[in-house]
Amino acid sequence: MKGIAERAGVGRQTVYRWWSTKAEILFEAAITDAVKELIKQPQPTTLEDVNTYLEAVESFLTASPAGAAYRALLGEAQHDPAVAQLVGSAALFDGPARAVLSRGISRGDIPPTTPLDAAMAVLTGPAFYLAVTGTDKLGVPVHALASALLAAIRELSPAASIEESQLR
């Protein structure tokens, strides 16, 4: 905290007035940068939207300083309940994922009955795989992963589940 205060040209008490721990500062910085890095312009198709989102998430988690900070916080959250609560307080990937899914619903590519929380989990699952394993790449082309995830999201719709059960 002393180094942060010195670099900002303020006293330590000023820093502590806004953030009580280094984890809070790191988390706020990661979230601020994540919003800039994860929200992308709408693409012409839902598949391209998903692909662009996945590329942004992969880049954020593997190449961005903010992503490195977020991964460090995820690791610390495994041992520190206060950091776990902090990380759990903001759904970093939900806003951008919800925007991609909402556009897919508007286009008619994703059923409107799809539960968005489950769909966001399917869409962001690879992000957490990257973060937890430390893997730089998923081992499959992003466009193939985007197609598979979009198909899985379509299957989440109650109407899709009914149709599937009727086939059996």
Automatic annotation (TrEMBL):
Database matches in SUPFAM superfamilies: Homeodomain-like (SSF46689), Tetracyclin repressor-like, C-terminal domain (SSF48498)
Ranges where the HTH tetR-type domain occurs: 1-28
Keyword Metal-binding listed: no
Keywords per UniProt: DNA-binding, Transcription, Transcription regulation
Domain Tetracyclin repressor-like C-terminal residue range list: 47-137
InterPro entries, A to Z: Homeodomain-like_sf, HTH-type_TetR-like_transc_reg, HTH_TetR, Tet_transcr_reg_TetR-rel_C_sf, TetR_C
Pfam families: TetR_C_11, TetR_N
Stored PANTHER family: HTH-TYPE TRANSCRIPTIONAL REGULATOR BETI, HTH-TYPE TRANSCRIPTIONAL REGULATOR RUTR
Name listed for the protein in its UniProt record: TetR family transcriptional regulator
